[in-house]
Amino acid sequence: MKRRTVLEGFIALAALPFVSSCSRELVAEKQRSTTIKIDPITVTPLEKPHEEWRALLSPEAYRVLFEEDTERPGSSPLNKEYRDGTYICAACYLPLFESQHKYDSGTGWPSFTQPISGHVGTKRDFKLIMLRTEYHCARCGGHQGHVFTDGPPPRGERWCNNGLALRFIPKGEPLPELRG
């Protein structure tokens, strides 16, 4: 068992006495007021075992993409990437974000105002006790990050991504063929 998982479990257990029906109501209200726009998935998901992805990725990228790990804030070179281009999934190369939607959120991770329509899927995530929306590549299922409702106008969304889960392809360079 990973140390992080154990620590998250201890934090969750310590917080249980403080969770009341009142706080559950606040979470439910927050869920109702969240307006994240999720477009229907438009790509065909891959049926590839995680072990095959492990052979194609660095150990760090594999942990982020297929074990839902999180890289250290401020550690990604993509934080300082300001050229025009496309951000693709580091596993299967599906385009996920266009550079015109990237912004500096001050969080230490590459952040975007919106993904490419139909190229991400979402699920609920309670790992840090509070409800978050995790998103992943719609093609390979690789974990990318979390989406929050504290982004800039007009959408108000912050798609906070692990840099290890992305590759940047500058404008003018051909996108690599999808792999998988």
Task: Give short descriptive properties of this protein.
alpha+beta; globular; 6-stranded antiparallel sheet; 22% strand; 180 residues; EC 1.8.4.12; oxidoreductase; 3-stranded antiparallel sheet; 2 domains; Metal Binding Protein, Guanine Nucleotide Exchange Factor, Chain A; 4 helices; 9 strands; 23% helix
SSE blueprint and pairings:
Elements: H1 3-15, H2 21-33, H3 50-56, H4 59-67, E1 85-89, E2 95-98, E3 102-103, E4 111-112, E5 120-125, E6 132-137, E7 143-148, E8 158-161, E9 166-170
Antiparallel strand pairs: 1-2, 1-9, 3-4, 4-8, 5-6, 6-7, 7-8
Enzyme class: oxidoreductase
Catalytic activity: L-methionyl-[protein] + [thioredoxin]-disulfide + H2O = L-methionyl-(R)-S-oxide-[protein] + [thioredoxin]-dithiol
GO molecular function: peptide-methionine (R)-S-oxide reductase activity
Task: Note down, in words, how this protein is organized.
By secondary structure, the protein is α+β, with helices and mostly antiparallel strands. The chain has 2 domains: 33 residues, no CATH class; 135 residues, Metal Binding Protein, Guanine Nucleotide Exchange Factor, Chain A. The protein is 23% helix and 22% strand. It is built from 4 helices and 9 strands; from the N terminus they run H-H-H-H-E-E-E-E-E-E-E-E-E. The strands form 2 sheets. Strands 3-4-8-7-6-5 form a 6-stranded antiparallel sheet. It has a 3-stranded antiparallel sheet with strand order 2-1-9, with no helix packed on it. About 11% of the residues have low confidence.
